[in-house]
Amino acid sequence: MALREILVVPHPVLKQVSQPVEQVDDELRALMDDMLETMYDAPGIGLAAIQVGVPERILVIDLQRRITPVDDEGNEVEDEARDIREPQYFVNPEIVWESEEYGVYNEGCLSVPEMYGDVERPARVRVKWLGYDGAAHEEELDGLLATCLQHEMDHLDGILFVDHLSKLKRDMIMKKLTKARKGK
Ligand SMILES: [Zn+2]
């Protein structure tokens, strides 16, 4: 496994539309392993292949369940909390249904470092995809997983979360990013 470079806005490749994967093979699995390692290292909870410069319809997501042990008195021991990894791989994901009900999350993105904004998306989605072994899946997702998946799927069509914000807010974020980069 190897770390890959994460492309950051305004890199033009991030605007590219990714192509469907023809076959889930060892080469593709090696890419997904790299993507996962890169995502953990960043750290983030989701990554699309285009973010490491590969224009193929592939995502990795890990919401990492946080386990906090309790002491004898039933108090949570924050110092001993740890995150359990639960990687999920989505090849050629396709939304086949979305709820009329919407949810709002304060989203961030590894390609738009340290910037956040509230984005409204369908609260639940039914998704079809191929897994790490190439097997077909179809499931209804909700909560953070539904949001994260829709955010990552946007990347496959060259869309960033800032594109869902008002022009004013988007311009503000881009200006801050440019300033931050100059400061380095
Ligand atoms: Zn993103």
Helix proportion of residues, in percent?
25-40%
Query: Average pLDDT value?
Result: 95
Name every ligand kind in the structure: zinc ion
- Please tally the helical runs, counting DSSP H or I stretches of 4 or more residues: 3
CATH architecture: Alpha-Beta Complex
What is the chain-wise order of helices and strands? HEEEEEEEEEHH
CATH topology: Peptide Deformylase
State which percent range the strand residues make up: 25-35%
The side-by-side strand order for the widest beta sheet comes to 1-2-5-8-9
**Regarding CATH, which class?**
Alpha Beta
Radius of gyration: 17 Å
Main sheet specs: 5 strands, antiparallel
Using DSSP, what is the number of strands?
A: 9
The quaternary state of the protein chains shown equals: single chain
